[in-house]
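ok new one. same drill as before - structure tokens go in, u give me an amino acid for every spot. 300 of them this time. try not to just spam alanines like last time pls lmao
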């Protein structure tokens, strides 16, 4: 079945990117969050992001900015999800928060609707157990920034049916993306490796092995990475990195996932990366035009 109406839970960085991408590729998106203030900020962020896209899209026969915005419904109420063919949940990477969402989706959404958890570490099998339709639950780990990333890590839980996987892959093709299907283990493929790398880079900063700038420069210049691990952590959000490491540490009971004390201290200090203006690098009041400036961390 073709997916046309998609509910998006959570209007943070990921939810905004998902809703924008859906609207740009012809879907109707229903973006939900807890307050009008959050939704107003999300609306402004999407308008800003699609302004550039819309200018060039008109010359190529694509949707204008106005057309993209008309396809997005902003709401604090789950009721519009009664029309959703598919739901992508992007709530904070905290199990206690996510667990409250799925029973409501179960009650509101039509029986055919599939639920995708946009999570980096939490078990898809466990999330499926919070619903009456575990065979229709899967993971879809979008990468940031969503509209620019061509691949989505797609996670099969223990009960996820092949029909659900096929529906998800079909929707991703409609979004001009490829889904790579992996099995359900904490961290899946990408974050089981990436969180270790970012965490170890934070340890190196704390231990005085090298500066954040030099650590990232080694990864960019020696390994050909487009972005170093610490700038990547800033982009994702250091609070999200910390929550993911805590889930991995608890899930595997393996000390290799123990969060770096410096990382925890930075999160406590509100240095969450790009979204707060400071993390391992200083971004000022807005995203910088050039490379980020390194933050002096000795006083943290």
């Amino acid at each position: 079945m073709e997916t046309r109406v998609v509910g998006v839970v959570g209007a943070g960085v990921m939810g905004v990117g998902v809703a924008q991408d859906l609207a740009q590729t012809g879907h109707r998106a229903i973006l939900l969050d807890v307050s009008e203030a959050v939704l107003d900020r999300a609306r402004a962020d999407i308008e800003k992001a699609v302004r550039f896209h819309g200018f060039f899209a008109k010359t190529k026969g694509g949707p204008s900015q106005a057309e993209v915005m008309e396809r997005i419904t902003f709401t604090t109420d789950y009721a519009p999800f009664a029309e959703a063919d598919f739901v992508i949940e992007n709530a904070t990477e905290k199990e206690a928060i996510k667990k409250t969402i799925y029973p409501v989706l179960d009650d509101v959404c039509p029986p055919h609707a599939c639920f995708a958890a946009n999570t980096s570490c939490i078990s898809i099998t466990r999330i499926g157990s919070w619903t009456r339709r575990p065979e229709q639950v899967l993971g879809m780990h979008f990468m940031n920034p969503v509209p620019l990333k061509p691949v989505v890590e797609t996670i099969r839980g223990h009960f996820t049916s092949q029909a659900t996987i096929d529906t998800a892959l079909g929707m991703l093709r409609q979004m001009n993306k490829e889904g790579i299907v992996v099995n359900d283990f904490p961290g899946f493929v990408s974050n089981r490796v990436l969180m270790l790398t970012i965490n170890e880079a934070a340890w190196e900063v704390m231990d005085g092995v090298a500066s954040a700038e030099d650590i990232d420069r080694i990864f960019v210049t020696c390994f050909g990475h487009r972005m170093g691990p610490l700038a990547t952590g800033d982009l994702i959000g250091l609070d999200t990195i910390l929550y993911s490491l805590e889930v991995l540490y608890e899930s595997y009971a393996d000390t290799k996932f123990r969060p770096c004390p410096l990382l925890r201290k930075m999160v406590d200090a509100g240095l969450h990366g790009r979204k707060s203006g400071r993390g391992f690098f200083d971004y000022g009041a807005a995203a910088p035009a050039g490379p980020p400036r390194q933050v002096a961390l000795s006083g943290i």
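The longest strand covers residues 151-156. and btw The mean pLDDT is 92.
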